[in-house]
Write a structure and sequence with these properties.
The complex is a heterotrimer of chains A (323), B (525) and C (336).
Chain A: H1 2-7, H2 17-39, H3 46-71, H4 80-94, H5 99-124, H6 128-147, E1 167-168, E2 171-172, H7 173-191, H8 193-203, H9 205-210, H10 215-241, H11 252-262, H12 274-293, H13 298-321
Antiparallel strand pairs in A: 1-2
Helix pairs in contact in A: 2-12, 3-7, 3-10, 3-11, 3-12, 4-5, 4-6, 4-10, 4-11, 5-6, 5-10, 7-8, 8-10, 11-12, 11-13, 12-13
Chain B: E1 22-33, E2 36-47, E3 51-56, H1 62-69, E4 77-82, E5 85-87, H2 92-97, E6 100-103, H3 115-119, H4 133-145, H5 162-175, E7 180-184, H6 192-207, E8 211-215, H7 219-225, E9 228-233, E10 236-242, H8 248-256, H9 259-264, E11 278-287, E12 291-299, E13 303-307, H10 314-321, E14 329-334, E15 337-339, H11 344-349, E16 352-355, H12 359-363, H13 370-375, E17 383-384, E18 387-388, H14 390-404, H15 420-429, E19 439-443, H16 451-466, E20 470-475, H17 478-484, E21 487-492, E22 495-501, H18 507-514
Parallel strand pairs in B: 3-8, 3-9, 6-7, 7-8, 13-20, 13-21, 16-19, 19-20
Antiparallel strand pairs in B: 1-2, 1-4, 4-5, 9-10, 11-12, 11-14, 14-15, 17-18, 21-22
Helix pairs in contact in B: 4-5, 8-18, 14-15
Chain C: H1 17-35, H2 42-67, H3 75-89, H4 94-118, H5 123-142, E1 147-148, H6 152-159, H7 168-186, H8 188-198, H9 200-206, H10 210-236, E2 238-239, H11 248-258, H12 270-289, H13 294-312, H14 316-326
Antiparallel strand pairs in C: 1-2
The chains are: A mainly alpha (323), B alpha/beta (525), C mainly alpha (336).
Chain lengths: 323, 525, 336
């Protein structure tokens, strides 16, 4: 990450602080991993590392998409779990039209769902949290209605989707997708006009408006991308489970938000990066894995995750304040 | 202002307090902000039961004096005595406890609460079950006194006009038994009947034995309301007079001091209007509550300065050009075409580049690098197919920084780490040399900038104008207007008072026009 | 004629909205017999009030944090924790269980409120973390399973009809609503809460003790979520770490918003929130009479929430104005 910043030439977000903070973050990750390796049996094995990455992948794809919303200053979306579930269901359902068609349709749906929410937030300044809560409810209702309450399974005739869940060179396909789409989005946020404008919008919405930035379009884009990525993750989840229903919603929403926050992105927007979220997702997956290996229950894992989120939010705020 | 008048309070028959007991004594107050000496050895006294005006041009020290009196600022030296007792004010609540209260543009009222709730908000001795009859009656009496008889206690504050809200703020201070009220430019956003109400309330207050400090640039009102006037200049008090012993001309002279002579000569060559082509035409611009019947023609290469004090409407005119006032009505033409500037995007598309006056809140992106701040307005040009052309962006940022006088080694630092002057240069930098700009609209381009920085910024603006862009700026400072503007437009209470080419403008007339309305006999060119 | 006319500020639309919506819902209920074979009986009113008892206080809790200018995302898990603690500690004496649940709520509220006030944090990410922490504790206490509450008689007593339509549970909820309404309207504390939500800077300058109030608001919010959760667990004789099929947060947010609570803070009251909860409860009852599947309720609640949020959106009218006017005058694009 520091190298990435260096490549941008003159541009450094600030003189010293993020370098220190990022280094501290990475140090913490390394420290925890080392501690885990030393004290947890079964942690430092190849298969375990693969398990961590796989667990991180699904949440990670959603989380990096969500990060664009966070960076744009719109806090976060509480509709992503439902979006993932509904995407998985649509994907499996439309497989009868062929793999390519299924993927395209699902991604388009994801994009549309996000874009509509983004429009309300961008053009009318509707509260993003509440709008996404409402959208989640709508999606839940629609999903159950359209599926008649039953899980969707892929059609027997079509098996191409199984490739999406296959391991490639020993690593599950979703992991590669995670790494690739993260890299794409990270580059996009740093190198494109859109990305730059999102950072500016998140930093100061009023100033962005006065400087004639296209606020509505940017917000539509942010929510659209988040939803698009979530739909992508939903496709992979559906392919992996071979079965989709609202039960899939699980804790994706909160896990994705936790990943973005734990990575150190400022919830108020304008500061942070995609890479941080990816690191956050991996970090959370690492911790969860360690806890699992040590016999912590579901509750324990959730509890630890919650504590980490609170601690990081306080630290991030203190860091921002000291600038 | 010839409404019905209370016979006791009309001039002449009113007993102008002369030689009454002293309530407030300020002795040798000094305060510096770094190298800038805002106030030096300032001494002042305010008598019991008087309305004491404090006048002075911008930068004379008025706001520092006020802030010292209410505990917002700790003076470096000097003594403040109330009733003979020396005060050490650490914060506004301290000042309030001593009975000193301030009413200024930024009201500390909550619009969602009712009038009564606001009056008793945060009071130190307001009981738990506070809506007792006794308190309500007290509030009712105070409101009636202030002329708000028609306002019910339970009305939500947000349904009241700004003038009425100001009176509610005063009511709150009265309920807390303020002895010295400082009214800092209270009438800037008020309508005539509201101003009358404030005056009547003020007169009643002093009749009760309280004192009022009236800080204002509106000389008509000073003459109507006040008993004595003190003039500040360069951080010192240069004179105090009984109001009936001085006239407007002498007052202006006192405020200007040596500036009068020095500013008579224009230091730079100013372009004469009529030479350039018409770029922007504004006709009958009207913004409810702010600006009325403003018509202007802006030519290429000409710098038009809107001179007016806070609240006069100059900022509003510029905001309209920036697309931030959708409720504006009137016609605006840019390059011969009628345009509807109701969003900032439309303004930018029409070729208007607007810089807001509140650079911290609305102008800069403080946490982002200087580099990003400089290039925010031209990202489209610096990218192809949506991808930023990094080398070109960096080069452009460096060029703009050099042009604007921002140290190049700070390009990577967050804008928040720059000094005020440099921040303003960054803001200006993003507006320079942008192709297709028809009009630069600069809202207070040198606010919070020192003399050296101001000169640099003015030079940049002139360069931009010479390249053919039309420029319009607003300022509350006389010397800036006279230095930078080719055409001086004075605005008072939302209306244009005069439009004068620089060559024919004099400091005294401009100041007079900024401080009084045309109807009341403002000096026409 | 002065250039400076009075600018009158229009009061927000919808001060009467909560009552209008409630009236609409009741009307719909009343019309049911005409459209179906069903006769509306007192049992239906009882059901409605039971629903109110189960979730009303959570809406009140969330509503108060919104009025104060914050947002407590942890209410949905605090609800569950309240139930879990009450069931685990209340086997011998239900009162003890309730007290334990309330005590837990106070601790949680102090922690969240303390962090938010002390570090001036945005309440959303903090309460999100709080949500996870509380949920985790709930799981741990119950060993990831539902816990049975042996003392069945307590539940029966709580739900026994009083005057045909009430029950102890619903009377407790109604009673607390009344107290809240009085406090918010007549006590200084109530006004100060609205002040810190309406304009925090002005409130601070005016001398309101903002930090202490913030902590108090989050304590109240935790209490408001824990109590109904505890009572419901007694009533169902089970405490569960999950609430599948029903999202307490969505319900509370919708009820609070249609109850007139403004997302920008400073506006709203207990009576309005009660109307909002009742409206949704009547709606649930109508749907249950019509034997509608669950998803219809999700759809309508979610849809209502979206509609209300858009109606309250600050820039809605400005957007309408600028797009409609734009169609009449097309600006010329400057060469760029």
């Amino acid at each position: 990450m520091a190298a990435a910043l260096g490549r941008l030439g003159l541009e450094r977000r600030s003189i010293r602080v993020p370098d220190v903070a990022l280094a501290a973050w990475l140090a913490m990750l390394a420290g925890v991993t080392a501690y885990g390796a030393a004290t947890t049996t079964g942690f430092l094995t190849v298969s375990n590392m693969k398990a961590i990455l796989t667990a991180a992948a699904f949440v990670g794809i959603i989380a990096v998409g969500l990060t664009v919303i966070v960076l744009s200053g719109n806090l976060f979306s509480l509709a992503l779990g439902q979006t993932a579930a509904i995407s998985a269901m649509l994907f499996l359902y439309t497989l009868r039209l062929g793999l390519a068609a299924a993927i395209v349709l699902t991604l388009l749906l994801g994009l549309a769902i996000g874009a509509v929410q983004g429009f309300a937030v961008g053009a009318w300044r509707a509260n993003p949290i509440i709008i996404t809560i409402g959208a989640a409810g709508l999606m839940e209702g629609m999903a159950v209605w359209l599926s008649h309450g039953q899980s969707i399974v892929p059609p027997a005739s079509e098996t191409s989707w199984q490739h999406l869940a296959q391991p490639v060179f020993g690593l599950a396909a979703p992991v590669y997708v995670f790494l690739v789409v993260t890299a794409i989005l990270a580059v996009a946020m740093h190198r494109t006009r859109f990305g730059r404008q999102i950072y500016l919008l998140g930093e100061n919405r009023v100033a962005a408006r006065a400087a004639a930035l296209p606020v509505t379009l940017l917000t539509v884009g942010a929510f659209g991308i988040a939803s698009l990525y979530t739909a992508g993750s939903g496709i992979l989840i559906g392919a992996t489970s071979a079965n989709a229903s609202l039960l899939l919603t699980g804790s994706y929403t909160y896990d994705a938000i936790a990943a973005a926050l734990v990575g150190g992105n400022a919830v108020t927007g304008g500061r942070g990066s995609i890479a941080r979220t990816a690191a956050g997702a991996i970090f959370i997956a690492t911790i969860s894995d360690m806890l699992l290996l040590r016999g912590y229950s579901t509750g324990g894992q959730i509890l630890v995750r919650g504590i980490i989120v609170v601690v990081v939010v306080v630290l991030t705020n203190l860091r921002e304040r000291s600038r | 202002m010839n409404g019905e008048r209370d016979p006791v309070a009309s001039p002449g028959s009113r007993s102008r307090s002369s030689g009454g007991a002293v309530l407030l004594e300020v002795v040798d107050l000094s305060k510096s902000y770094g190298p800038v000496r805002a106030v030096r050895e300032l001494s002042l006294d305010v008598r019991v039961g008087e309305v004491h005006a404090v006048c002075g041009h911008n930068g004379a020290g008025k706001s520092t004096l006020v802030k010292s009196l209410v505990g917002l600022v700790r003076p470096d030296e000097g003594i403040i005595r109330l009733d003979g007792v020396e005060l050490s004010l650490r914060n506004p609540l301290d000042a309030q406890a001593h009975g000193i209260a301030l009413v200024n543009q930024e009201l500390s009222l909550v619009p969602e609460l009712s009038v009564e709730d606001n009056i008793f908000l945060g009071g130190l001795d307001v009981p738990l079950l506070y809506r007792r009859r006794r308190l309500s009656e007290h509030a009712r009496r105070v409101l009636d006194q202030l002329g708000l008889r028609h306002v019910r206690l339970g009305t939500p504050l947000e349904t009241l006009s700004i003038g009425e809200r100001q009176l509610v703020e005063i009511a709150r201070l009265l309920v807390r038994d303020a002895r010295l009220l400082i009214l800092d430019e209270p009438t800037a956003t008020l309508s005539k009947p509201e101003i009358e109400r404030v005056f009547r309330a003020t007169r009643d207050l002093v009749a009760q034995g309280r004192s009022v400090i009236f800080v204002s640039h509106r000389l008509d009102e000073v003459f109507e309301l006040c008993d004595r006037v003190s003039v500040l200049r360069d951080g010192r008090r240069v004179g105090t007079h009984e109001i009936n012993e001085i006239d407007r001309g002498s007052l202006i002279e006192l405020m200007l001091g040596e500036m009068e002579g020095a500013l008579a000569q224009a230091e730079h060559e100013h372009a004469a209007p009529g030479a350039g082509s018409e770029v922007v035409r504004i006709e009958r611009l009207h913004v409810p509550g702010s600006v009325d019947d403003v018509s202007l023609t802006l030519e290429s290469g000409i710098i038009t300065g809107l001179a007016g004090q806070v609240g006069s409407g100059t900022s509003t005119v510029l905001r309209v050009l920036g697309g931030l006032v959708p409720e504006a009505s009137g016609t605006i033409e840019v390059r011969g075409r009628k345009v509807l500037l109701n969003t900032p995007r439309r303004a930018a598309d029409a070729g208007v580049l607007y810089l807001p006056n509140d650079r911290q809140r609305e102008g800069l992106f403080l946490g982002q690098s200087v580099y990003r701040n400089l290039t925010v307005t031209r990202l489209r040009r610096l990218s192809r197919l949506g991808v930023l052309l990094r080398r070109r962006v960096q080069r452009t940022a460096r060029e703009l920084a050099t042009l604007a006088g921002v140290p190049v080694d700070r390009l990577g630092s967050p804008a928040a780490s720059l000094s005020g002057g440099n921040q303003q240069k960054v803001l200006l930098g993003r507006a320079l040399e942008l192709e297709g700009t028809a009009l630069l609209a600069l809202d207070e381009p040198t606010r919070g900038v020192d003399v050296g920085g101001r000169a640099e910024i003015h030079r940049l603006v002139r360069v931009a104008a010479r390249r053919g862009t039309a420029v319009i700026f607003s300022s509350t400072e006389l010397d800036e207007v006279l230095d930078l503007a080719d055409v001086v437009v004075t605005i008072f209470a939302g209306r244009i008072v005069s439009v004068v080419p620089r060559a024919q403008a004099s400091a005294a007339t401009i100041l007079a026009n900024m401080t009084t309305s045309h109807a009341a006999g403002g000096v026409a060119p | 004629m002065s250039a400076l006319e009075r600018v009158r500020y229009r009061p927000r639309p919808g001060d009467l909205a909560p009552y209008a919506i409630l009236a609409l819902m009741i009307l719909a209920l009343a019309l049911l017999p005409a459209l179906t074979q069903y006769t509306v009986r007192t049992a239906n009113v009882y059901d409605i009030l039971q629903n109110f008892a189960s979730y009303g206080l959570v809406a009140l809790a969330l509503g108060i944090t919104i009025i104060a200018g914050e947002f407590d995302l942890s209410v949905s898990s605090m609800y569950l924790l309240g139930g879990m603690v009450a069931v685990l500690t209340g086997v011998g004496s239900p009162f003890l269980g309730i007290l334990a649940a309330l005590g837990t709520a106070v601790v949680v509220g102090l922690l969240q409120g303390g962090l938010i006030a002390r570090f001036r944090l945005n309440s959303m990410p903090v309460t999100l973390g709080g949500y996870l922490v509380v949920l985790g504790i709930t799981y741990i206490l119950g060993h990831s399973k539902s816990v049975i509450y042996e003392n069945f008689s307590v539940g029966l007593r709580l739900d026994k009809p009083v005057l045909q339509i009430f029950s102890i549970r619903s009377l407790v909820s109604l009673g607390i609503f009344v107290v809240a309404a009085l406090v918010l309207r007549y006590l200084r504390v109530g006004r100060d809460i609205r002040a810190i939500g309406g304009d925090r800077r002005a409130a601070r300058v005016a001398g309101v003790t903002v930090d202490r109030l913030l902590v108090g608001v989050f304590v109240v919010s935790a209490l408001g979520a824990a109590l109904p959760g505890a009572l419901l667990s007694y009533s169902l004789a089970t405490a569960s770490p999950t609430n599948i099929g029903f999202d307490v947060l969505t319900f509370s947010a919708t009820a609070a918003l249609i109850g007139g609570v403004s997302l920008s803070g400073g506006k709203g009251g207990a009576v309005g929130i009660a109307a909002g909860v009742l409206s949704l409860s009547v709606l649930q009852e109508i749907l249950s009479i019509l034997r509608s599947p669950d998803y219809v309720s999700s759809l309508i609640t979610g849809g209502l929430l979206v509609v209300v949020t858009i109606v309250w959106a600050p820039d809605l009218s400005r957007w309408f104005r600028t797009t409609r006017l734009a169609r009449s005058v097309e600006p010329e694009r400057a060469p760029s």
